[in-house]
Amino acid sequence: MDNVIPAVKAKHLSVKCGDFSLKNINLSVMQNEIFAILGKTGSGKTVFLECLAGFYLNLGGEMQLFGNNAAGIALEDRSVGFVYQDYGLFPHLNVFKNIAYGLKMHHVPKAEIKQKVKTMAEMLSISHILSCYPATLSGGEKQRTALARALIMQPKLLLLDEPFSALDPSTKNNMYNELLRLHKKFGCTTIFVTHDFKEAQSLAGRIGILLDGKLTAVVKSDELFSENMNYTSEICNFLGIS
Q1: Residue-range domain boundaries for the chain
Q2: Phi, psi of 195 (to 5 degrees)
Q3: Strands 80-83 and 60-65
Q4: Which long-range contacts (CB under 8 A, 24 or more apart) does 54-60 make?
Q5: What spatial distance separates the first Cα and last Cα of the chain, rounded to whole Å?
Q6: What is the pLDDT of residue 238?
Q7: If DSSP codes are grouped into helix, strand and coil, which group holds residue 130?
Q8: Is the Cα torsion angle 8, 158, 33, 86 positive or negative in sign?
Q9: For position 3, what pLDDT does the model report?
Q10: What pLDDT, on a 0 to 100 scale, did the predictor assign at position 84?
């Protein structure tokens, strides 16, 4: 296991965004792992994902993606799929064109795009809405469309920003199962951020607790509330344990 190259390895990673700073992050996420970043609103969860995606040039410390220094990898070459909390769908494009967008930007032939979109839509049970526009979709349909758009590029790393926060409980549970199914099928490393303890424990093998820009702990999901964990008072307050 020691010889396996992590999907993500951060050493003293820092970045400043206006008045907010992500501070001294040290973390390894293994290939094919589902890893959760758990924290309050404003703790820096989205900023961390954006660092992995390559959105910031002013990073301090070091970050590696699959054994390569991320500083030398252009954003478009990182093999990263990113789904934002609001899904980020293009309102003027229908579902087919939203899913096909990345392929089109990479100049994939039209016939190949059509076949790949058809296959991905079938996989995510959204074939019946390919001609619809985002404004007409339910939350679950938007989520599936956003996932299809990310996964059609076959990313090695999938980043999900509060992916289920806008969904009703029933749809949310369905999407939990969908994510686990897609992860098993595609095998891509998945990092998602959430403020929901149950969600983190249900989906991830390990959980990183991010508070005020600092990664304060990394624990196995089934040990999150364990009495044996030597948590700081800050983490105890966040988790609601004494």
Answers
A1: 1-74+189-242
A2: -110, 5
A3: unpaired
A4: 54/78, 54/80, 56/15, 56/17, 58/15, 58/16, 59/13, 59/14, 59/15, 60/12, 60/13, 60/14, 60/15
A5: 35
A6: 94
A7: coil
A8: positive
A9: 61
A10: 87
Q: What are 79's two structure tokens?
A: 């093999």
Per-residue model confidence (pLDDT) at position 233: 93
**Looking at residue 225, what is its pLDDT?**
93
Tokens of 89: 């769908």
Residue at token pair 């196995």: 220
Would you state the pLDDT for residue 1?
44
**Per-residue confidence (pLDDT) for residue 169, from 0 to 100:** 84
CATH of 1-74+189-242, one of 3.40.50.150, 3.30.70.100, 3.40.50.300, 3.40.50.2300: 3.40.50.300
- Between helix 95-105 and helix 110-123 the angle, nearest 10°, is 130
Per-residue HEC secondary structure of 14-46 comes to EEEECCEEEEEEEEEECCCCEEEEECCCCCCHH
Question: Are 47 and 25 within 8 A, CB to CB?
Answer: no
Q: Which residue has the tokens 């105890």?
A: 236
Q: Which residues contact 22 (CB under 8 A, 6 or more apart)?
A: 13, 14, 15, 16, 44, 47, 48, 51, 213
Specify the amino acid at residue 122: E
The structure tokens listed for 85 are 């909390």
CB contact set of 185 (below 8 Å; sequence gap of 6+)? 123
Chunked mean pLDDT (size 10), the chain, 242 residues = 81 92 95 96 93 89 93 86 88 97 94 96 94 94 92 94 84 87 91 94 96 96 92 93 80
Is 98 in contact with 117 (CB distance < 8 Å)?
no
88 φ, ψ to 5°? 65, 30
